[in-house]
UniProtKB/TrEMBL annotation:
<feature type="transmembrane region" description="Helical">
    <location>
        <begin position="95"/>
        <end position="115"/>
    </location>
</feature>
<keyword id="KW-1133">Transmembrane helix</keyword>
<keyword id="KW-0812">Transmembrane</keyword>
<feature type="transmembrane region" description="Helical">
    <location>
        <begin position="62"/>
        <end position="83"/>
    </location>
</feature>
<dbReference type="Pfam" id="PF14934">
    <property type="entry name" value="TMEM254"/>
</dbReference>
<dbReference type="InterPro" id="IPR028110">
    <property type="entry name" value="TMEM254"/>
</dbReference>
<protein>
    <recommendedName>
        <fullName>Transmembrane protein 254</fullName>
    </recommendedName>
</protein>
<feature type="transmembrane region" description="Helical">
    <location>
        <begin position="16"/>
        <end position="34"/>
    </location>
</feature>
<keyword id="KW-0472">Membrane</keyword>
<dbReference type="GO" id="GO:0016020">
    <property type="term" value="C:membrane"/>
</dbReference>
């Protein structure tokens, strides 16, 4: 979606970051909850790294997944606050920011942080 006005501003995260973050989250979830089902040999160097973490650092991998989830929730709350501060009032636009920030984290949040609204007064 393009920038139409300040109350409905939304920019989509780039496809490169969508692919990278999605692969990371899928692999992290898969290795944390179903490590016996991961085809490590088919994943090349990434599979070898994942197998190493499963074999030698599994608690960090497992609890790291929950930490990642909490961080994404905190980013969503921050995105909601930024939407409010920057005058983005449209409910559907806020929902887009929430969903994108939850799925892609900082790559989405940076787009919202960079947004400079026009001279309208901020909401308090």
């Amino acid at each position: 979606m393009a920038e139409s006005d300040g109350c409905s501003y939304f920019r989509r995260t780039g496809p490169f970051w969508m692919v990278i973050v999605s692969i990371y989250i899928i692999l992290h979830t898969w290795t944390a909850f179903w490590p016996q089902d991961v085809p490590y040999g088919l994943l090349g160097p990434l599979g070898a790294l994942a197998k190493y973490f499963v074999d030698y650092h599994y608690p960090a991998l497992y609890y790291g997944w929950f930490l990642m989830f909490v961080i994404h929730v905190c980013e969503v709350l921050f995105a909601l606050k930024l939407c409010s501060d920057k005058g983005i009032d449209s409910t559907s636009t806020r929902l887009l920011w929430v969903a994108q920030t939850f799925l892609f984290g900082l790559t989405s949040l940076c787009l919202l942080i960079k947004y400079k609204p026009d001279g309208r007064p901020k909401r308090q």
